[in-house]
Amino acid sequence: MKRTSVALAAVIALASCGDDTTPSSVAPDDGPVRIGHLVSGDRISYRNGAALAVDEVNAGGGLLGRPVELVSEVGIEEAAVAAQIAERMIVTDEVVAIIGPNRSTHAVEVGPVAQRLGVPMVTTAATNPRVTEAGELVFMAAYTDRFQGGVMAQFARETLGVTTAAFLTERGDVYAEGIAEFFAVSFRDLGGTVVREEFYDAGATDFSAQLARISAAAPEILFLPGFPPEVALITRAARALPLTDADGGQTVLAGGDTWDNPELLQNEGADVEGGYFTTHFSPDTDEPAARAFVAAYQAAYGTLPSGGDGVNYDAVRIFVEAAERAGTLEAAAVRRQIAATEDYAGATRIARYSEDRHPTKSVVIMSVRDGAKTFFRQVDP
Hints:
Number of helices: 12
Distance between the termini: 39 Å
Radius of gyration: 21 Å
Order of helices and strands: HEHEHEHEEHEHEHEHEHEHHHEEEEEE
Shape: elongated
Structural class: alpha/beta
Oligomer: single chain
Helix content: 25-40%
Number of strands: 16
């Protein structure tokens, strides 16, 4: 999809209201409160999570007495396009916040736009810690890959008891390369050995060379934190080899939150049975607020939510609750209240925000059994 950028004159007019570090945007004082929402790639259901939060806010009387309108764009494939859409939403649609995007590669491009134009931004499923580097207006609703990758490394070493690992991931992607490196560093710090580090280009379909080198190293676990199209092909090829450890046992396959996607779990060509992955929450949670979210989501959409659906819901609620506490939509006041968030309970829980605007929160580990994801463990920070 291609989009043209907004008119330069409009951008200059808005930017002149404040410098790059001084938030100054304020919503018009009449009509609905518009919130921008960006969804990258095929995660169409992510809009459901955000829309459910907006519906609940409106059912409760709106935000500061005004109805909320979600200005959503779904299916964005390019980071540059995501940045253009965010700019159009801020300048033309007069949104008071940007929710999303869900891909780290897109979020690192959108963040500077929100910061420059003085609008708070809360990313959804984007997990690379770099996404908040744009400035003080950019926050994350998801845990960071430093924590997520570390959790998987600790799980591999201490729960599965493996001592050797390899990873195969997409080259040049902020998320995929980042979490693979965090996993590798943590695994080594815990006394494990990373026997192979392999990469592929986005859209690749032949992984025989990489898997041959990995097979020769005989790792006990193979970490695959890429995206469903490639992961499906890799897992099928790995099992066909078959990929085994030094003792001839089947190598464990593991991934990150990108595995929490029907495109992978329902793909008959994938072979992730017996694998493990990290995600944001489990529909089997016993947390009261999360149970209420699951029930409302099922009632509205007729299906169980994914972890990504949950953090899209949470990102909207985090902004709305901060604005209510601030008593205004003025960006600096809202930013201060988001930063002051404590003990937030929604689809997921956030204990607090760090100075880097990263949330302190749990990671859930899921296993794949009989073709379905199953709750295995929650790891608290």
